Amino acid sequence: MRLPRSIAFITACTWLAAAPAAMAQTPADKDQTPLNQPAKPPVNPPSADKRAHSYTHHGITISDPYHWLKDQGYPEVDDKDVLDHLKAENAWFETRMASQKGLVDTLFEEIKGRIKEDDSSVPQKDGDWLYWSEFSPGQEYRKHYRRAASGGDPVLILDENALAKDLEYFRLGAFAMSRSGRYLAYSTDTSGAERFTIRIKDLTTGELLADEIPGTLAGPVWAAGDSAIVYGLATKEWRVDNVRLHRLGEANDQDVELYHENDETFRVGSGLSAQEDWLIIAAGDNETTEVRLVRADDPTGPQLLVKPRKKGVEYDVDVRDGTLFVHTNDDHVNFRLATASLDAPGDWTTLIAGSDEFYLSEFDLFADFYITEGRLNGLDQVQLRDYRDPAKLTAIPFPEASYSAGLSNNPEYASNKLRLAYESMVTPDSVYDYHVASGELELLKQQEIPSGYDPSLYTTERLEIRARDGTMVPVSVVMRKDRPKAADGGAGPLHLYAYGAYGYAVPPGFTVSRLSLIDRGFAYAIAHIRGGDDLGRNWYLQGKMNARTNTFNDFVDVAKGLVERGITQKGRISISGGSAGGELMGAVINTDPDLWGAVAAHVPFVDVLNTMLDDSLPLTPGEWQEWGNPITSKQAFAYMLSYSPYDQVVAQDYPPLLVTAGLNDPRVTYWEPAKWVAKLRELKTDDNELLLKTNMGAGHGGKSGRYQSIYETAEEFAFILWQLGMTKQP
Asked: Could you list the active site residues?
């Protein structure tokens, strides 16, 4: 398969997490000693010291008295004052949430009851084998199996639970089968710091090879048959600037560097072409790419540069029978698909022209057809195309007015059917096979909800709400059909969610957890605000760099529009977002604090200006194309200062706020939420709850494992219900 942009370029929107050991008991019953709370519960919230610190850029001096919360030895965090403060905040969180423990436990069991404990994925054929994974009752992690496609008994090839035993955090990263099916290369992260260790298992013997490669972030990709893997080492700045070749059985210091990237703003990734005959090496930042090809059976051989990098031009490629396919935005913001010969790889001829209406986001090559994916009027499209006739197109039909759909795992190049994933805000996750010859959509599996779920009780719609600049912003809403109307006694509560960055479109999909709010009378809405690419690439561009505040304004205006439509009312709106979506939370509580009844900000990117000024931090140089560079640009500095949530905290009333952080988080460092909460405690003029929970053994995604993560969701929902005065059971 071709190298997707998501492999080549790592952005802060990633929300993958894994988890600790298998649970013999729920988190509510576990010893809370990792939080190191004092024997006696605190009676007052922590008050962070103010220590004089300031910095000056472009003639502007900024005071930052909570700068000390950044451990100067980072990424090691061992400063006693810092750790004591975080532990004090955790103790305050535990103390204040103690009164809601019953509700948390109820919500936990409620959400857990909707999850099939002995669930399994639909087997998928890859070569001579069928592969799938299973959860067992009570276990946090998956077991991975295979059996011969010709028949036979299942064979356990990897047990994540065994790998995670006695660990506070565990995440399986890569899972890559060699072409023959003999070897499995996999990687694991056991701290949340997103430094993965690659191991290789011989599936014929069940033994682990001696090969072990720590400190990876990209890969592994199989090359040279079963004899070697290609991977990328993470730098101390937490990026991949290299592609390396490791031959099985050789020492790591014998590994060959196939490519090195010198631009500190670029990251590197690798993948295989659809026919697995070319290794694709891509380098890029958030707006520019450059791709090289090398024969997969001779990875140290000569490399073919597809086209030199040009600022603002993105492209990704695949190869079929010697023809290069190129997906690029070089002449249209919504991308076109072109072809070229390998003799002249930079001479691109349009196959599918760019369109103002259709946003072409992906393509995939198969033996007898190819697939284009994208969005039309904001709705997902999966299109079957004919190599012989570019004008011939079959759009796979989907039954609902608003939904999320796309290709799932399709490992075989020669295939007469496609594995698809489909869901909507009322339809659970569904797995289909699309039969190419007949056009039949065959439902293979739909997510089971053991405690029961009747989709006919719910309704979903897609609204458009006018933002202050006249732009119409889409909103996906789901609620119970029997939810009281405004005319029947007042508008009920609403939970509003958004992300709004990096061109990530939040899909209008299904989650079992949100039913715990919806069944208590909430409407649940996703605001498809600018900064995502929901309505095409321009939608993303209108929410980044010098247009960043459009994202915040859209969110506020959507909330106000939902109030005007009688769906909710001011002060009865709970909101949540994480990472860049946490920045969104920080911005909107500064500008419109009285709109919100409760706020959950997860690992929030709120100390924007300081982070973008610190080029020693892992992500900063690569993020200047997303946010601007305040080091070199006075305009970027001033604009960032105008909206940076931490810098814009003022003396005013703020809504109830739950904030989370991860001590090992390399994306949004722990001190951003810690500093923000400290400043809020100093300046806010209300008595509303302000809680900070720092996971001392986890990273960006919080705790891992299906039950641990459910418990944290239960805590968030309990906080929301508590603050909105809705703690009675439905």
From this structure: 579, 665, 700
